[in-house]
């Protein structure tokens, strides 16, 4: 018999499990019959499906607690149960639910065996009245816990409800019944209506949650020209890395610096400082890398970025891996060489990406005629798997991680898009088996520009990438279903897409047009289209790079994604045919709009 009545968790080693089902699988025929007969007895007075499921779950847990057959339960077992359930950290209601079932079982099994278990009287229910009331400040959530709640969701309604519950101390039903005319945005107060008392009360909320409430009402964001030019520009959008929305960024320089220098800005790219990323002092200026920086993996949770260097010019024989830790300082981060790999067949090495699975890091690329994945967490690097190149062309997109699998898009020599994945569960590289038959066509390949090799991810199942139609050189949006292993051809978009890894948690990736003044965001509802979120004009020519908050044009002009909600003066929501809602907006002429542009409006209306 267990010493404690345990909690039965619904996850094991990161995977969802049904603990009751696992216990049920181990029941012998005798226990199965007793359980079946007891549940039948209980159903006489309670026919509810949910109640029956609860009885079964508790009985299976009790069987696991006993660690013996149910038919062998004795009076001492009920004494031990009474003691352990009392010590349990379950809620009062939770403990009483368990007591109710076990007490019923004790009387029922006693009747079957013609035995009376005197210790059943020791299984006493706890009083619940007042047990959930706040008795001390320790019962209240802290500001840190409140901040965690806010960050745990990107849903505007959820954020608003959390803020109102926190600030007003209202009952859940009071907050859920609120209408916009109950909120005074000038006086910062809210009128709460109580069904319990039949009266209302007015309570204040702080200025700092006003934005969360107003954002739920209506939200318009667009790009604002910051009016300055960045002297540093990345070779592709993946190598402009946003650290904070306040304007701190790292950037690999693509100009005369040949992609070997890394810079830092704390003021939205108004000025830059070169970082020392050569701790071994082997480069000419003792600050730069020996080879071109080709890919990066940002781990914002731990304030670490891993980089891989490889010239990728057809003459490369080796590559380097290093990491930058900005925990203590963003302007003077700690740079650590992890290691190098050399000795490849001359002029045969191409490294396309670096990625993280669990706590380990890996690179993927091509060596001679093999596609390779190396584990590069520490030196010496370890080969995980290789795959004969076959008909795969030289280009890979950057990739995404789903679970323990890395997904990338490649082109084969029959001009088809294929999914290449590395499954770390079995350390195997593979080309999607069905891509040859369920592909978007035999006339598509990856664009030549590395800027168009980004892959976005909806967080659920769909990958987004750009493919080029060979017959007319037009580019299109493609999406790939991981679960269905199938492609869908979307609309024509000549865009560069952000990497999934460079978008903040809960934020969908953006994309910028390469020849027009348009910025988009992926659309999880209409997967063949992109949301047009801005048509602001670049200062010079076209766009060059994008992050969650910042946008850079080819000339280095910088733009910031800002809240322009205050520029909307009025919004009237009505319904048309088929009860379809529409709105008439009155807004400042500073906001450029056009057909197909996406503006988020959220409200409660009838």
Layout of SSEs?
Layout: E1 11-12, E2 15-16, H1 19-25, H2 29-43, H3 49-66, H4 75-87, H5 92-113, H6 143-151, H7 156-168, H8 172-176, E3 183-184, E4 189-193, E5 200-204, H9 210-217, E6 218-219, E7 221-229, E8 240-242, E9 249-252, E10 262-265, E11 273-274, E12 293-299, E13 304-309, E14 319-325, E15 334-341, E16 349-357, E17 360-367, E18 370-375, E19 382-388, E20 392-396, E21 400-402, E22 405-412, E23 417-423, E24 428-431, E25 444-445, E26 456-457, E27 462-469, E28 474-481, E29 486-492, E30 495-497, E31 510-513, E32 519-522, E33 530-534, E34 543-546, E35 550-553, E36 557-563, E37 568-575, E38 581-587, E39 600-601
Antiparallel strand pairs: 1-2, 3-4, 4-5, 6-39, 7-36, 8-9, 9-10, 10-11, 12-13, 13-14, 14-15, 16-17, 17-18, 18-19, 20-22, 21-22, 22-23, 23-24, 25-27, 26-27, 27-28, 28-29, 30-31, 31-32, 32-33, 34-35, 35-36, 37-38
Concise summary:
With 606 residues, the protein is α+β, with helices and mostly antiparallel strands. α6 packs antiparallel against α7.
- Distance linking N and C termini: 59 Å
Structural class, from secondary structure content?
Answer: alpha+beta
Could you estimate the helical fraction of the residues in percent?
A: 10-25%
Over the alpha carbons, how many angstroms does the gyration radius reach? 31 Å
Number of strands: 39
Net shape: globular
Reported for the largest beta sheet, the result is: 5 strands, antiparallel
Mean of residue pLDDT values:
84
How many helices? 9
Q: What proportion of the residues form beta strands (DSSP E)?
A: 25-35%
Unreliable stretches? 434-439
């Amino acid at each position: 018999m267990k010493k404690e009545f345990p909690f039965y968790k619904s996850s094991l080693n990161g995977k969802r499990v049904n603990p009751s089902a696992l216990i049920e699988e181990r029941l012998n025929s005798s226990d199965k019959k007793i359980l079946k007969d007891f549940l039948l007895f209980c159903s006489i007075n309670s026919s509810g499906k949910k109640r029956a499921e609860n009885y079964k779950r508790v009985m299976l847990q009790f069987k696991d607690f006993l660690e013996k057959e149910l038919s062998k339960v004795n009076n001492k077992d009920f004494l031990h149960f009474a003691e352990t359930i009392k010590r349990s950290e379950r809620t009062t209601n939770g403990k009483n639910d368990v007591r109710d079932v076990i007490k019923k079982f004790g009387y029922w099994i006693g009747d079957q065996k013609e035995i009376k278990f005197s210790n059943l009287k020791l299984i006493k229910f706890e009083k619940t009245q007042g047990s959930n009331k706040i008795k001390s400040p320790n019962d209240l959530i802290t500001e840190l816990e409140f901040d965690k709640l806010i960050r745990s969701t990107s849903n505007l309604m959820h954020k608003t409800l959390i803020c109102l519950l926190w600030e007003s101390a209202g009952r859940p039903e009071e907050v859920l019944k609120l209408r916009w005319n109950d909120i005074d945005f000038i006086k910062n107060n809210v009128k709460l209506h109580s069904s319990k008392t039949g009266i209302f009360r007015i309570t204040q909320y702080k200025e700092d949650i006003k934005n969360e409430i107003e954002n739920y009402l209506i939200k318009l964001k667009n790009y604002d020209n910051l009016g300055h030019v960045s002297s540093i520009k990345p070779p592709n959008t993946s190598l402009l890395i946003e650290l904070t929305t306040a304007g701190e960024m790292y950037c690999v320089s693509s100009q005369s610096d040949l992609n070997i220098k890394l810079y830092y800005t704390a003021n939205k790219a108004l000025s830059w400082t070169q970082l020392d990323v050569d701790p071994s002092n082997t480069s000419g200026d003792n600050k730069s890398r020996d080879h071109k920086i080709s890919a990066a993996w940002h781990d914002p949770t731990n304030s670490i970025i891993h980089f891989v260097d490889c010239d990728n010019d057809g003459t490369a024989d080796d590559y380097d891996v290093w990491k930058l830790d900005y925990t203590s300082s963003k302007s003077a981060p700690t740079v650590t060489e992890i290691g190098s790999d050399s000795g490849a067949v001359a002029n045969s090495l191409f490294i396309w990406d670096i990625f993280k699975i669990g706590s380990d890091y890996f690179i993927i690329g091509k060596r001679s005629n093999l596609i390779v994945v190396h584990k590069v967490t520490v030196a010496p690097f370890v080969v995980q798997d290789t795959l004969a190149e076959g008909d795969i062309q030289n280009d890979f997109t950057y990739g995404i991680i789903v679970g323990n699998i890395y997904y990338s898009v490649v082109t084969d020599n029959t001009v088809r898009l294929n999914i290449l994945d590395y499954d770390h569960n079995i350390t195997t590289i593979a080309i999607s088996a069905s891509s040859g038959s369920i592909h978007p066509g035999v006339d598509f390949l990856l664009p030549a520009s590395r800027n168009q090799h980004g892959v976005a991810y909806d967080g659920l199942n769909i990958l987004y990438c750009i493919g080029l139609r060979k017959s007319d050189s037009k580019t299109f949006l493609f999406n790939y279903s991981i679960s269905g292993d199938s492609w869908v051809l979307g609309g024509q978009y000549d865009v560069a897409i952000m990497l999934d890894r460079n978008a903040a948690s809960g934020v969908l990736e953006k994309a910028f047009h390469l020849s027009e003044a348009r910025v988009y965001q992926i659309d999880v509802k209409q997967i063949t289209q992109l949301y047009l979120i801005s048509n602001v004009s670049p200062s010079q020519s076209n766009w060059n790079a994008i992050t969650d908050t910042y946008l850079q044009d080819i000339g280095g002009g910088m733009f910031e994604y800002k809240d322009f909600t205050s520029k909307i003066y009025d919004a009237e929501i009505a319904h048309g045919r088929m009860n379809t809602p529409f709105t008439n907006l009155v807004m400042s002429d500073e906001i450029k709009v056009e057909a197909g542009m996406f503006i988020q409006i959220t409200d409660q209306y009838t």
